[in-house]
Amino acid sequence: MRGGGGGDHHCYSESATPDRNPSSSSGSSGVCMMSNNWRDEQHPFLIDFICSFLNANSFRLNHVPIAPDFIFNCGGLSVAFVFVTSWDDSCTSLLYSRVMKLKEQFAHLYVVVTLPTREQNDSFVRSYFKSGIDIGRPTFVLVKDLEMGFEKIVKMAHARGVCKQQNALNMMKAERKQAVQGMDVFLGVVTSIPGLDSHDAHSLNQAIGSIEAIAKASKEQLLESTDLSAEKVETITRFFRDPKFYLSPKIN
């Protein structure tokens, strides 16, 4: 069901491609791992097209013994693909059995099926609904030709990688915002101690750490770790440990 043709194939990086991946032209877009078995069953022209397309879109290609036909690693996310290049309705049970096994192994799996004729499309639809596979788990993508099929594979892998990176960036931004807000609270608490300013607060943050750590620190530790005067250190320890001090009104 994977298509005819065989023999050795070679990649020509200088070949042109009909399209470009929307990723940045600088650096690598990711890594594409191609199954040795799948490669050996394909016509040489398709392998040449794949190599050229990946090269032009800054993907590194590795030929490896893997269970799926392709695994892309983009932005730290692995996406697996089954690429059916020749539909054979007599082998559908083997295809669906293989897909069911791969679905258990890969969190991100897509099945791309080449169906150039109406008859083949109808045959696929009938087999799909008889297979018992949950709709959308995994996603099947139907295409009319081989080139379109592989272009969709690359674009889907790239899109998933971009989403992963964007989520990571959003998390970093949220953590940075939370850290800034936490620092604002820290400065507010420390500078509320009579005689301490923002410089003193930053010094305590770098040398001692959290408010809790400052409250537990000894006078000796505060004097050794910061540039605060003995008078300020005395005020800090009284502020956190002497109820008569921290409960009485302060006038700066």
Explain what you see.
The chain has 252 residues and is an alpha/beta fold. Helices cover 52% and strands 14% of the residues. The chain is built from ten helices and six strands. The protein has helices at 36-40, 44-56, 92-105, 118-131, 146-190, 198-207, 211-216, 219-225, 230-241, 243-246; strands at residues 30-35, 59-64, 70-74, 77-84, 109-114, 139-143. It has a six-stranded mixed sheet with strand order 2-1-3-4-5-6, sandwiched between helices. Strand 5, helix 4 and strand 6 (139-143) form a beta-alpha-beta unit. Helix 2 (44-56) packs parallel to helix 5 (146-190). The chain is elongated, with a radius of gyration of 31 Å. The chain starts with 29 loop residues before the first strand and ends in a 6-residue tail after the last helix. Residues 1-10 and 12-26 have low confidence and may be disordered.
Query: Cα-atom Rg, whole angstroms?
Result: 31 Å
Q: Decide which structural class fits the backbone.
A: alpha/beta
Report strand %.
Answer: 5-15%
State the shape.
elongated
Tally of helical segments: 10
> Which sequence of strands runs across the widest sheet?
2-1-3-4-5-6
Order of helices and strands: EHHEEEHEHEHHHHHH
Mean pLDDT equals 82
Specify the biggest β-sheet: 6 strands, mixed
| Helix content, binned percent | 40-55%
Give the number of DSSP strands.
6
Give the CA-CA distance, first to last residue. Answer: 83 Å
The low-confidence parts are 1-10, 12-26
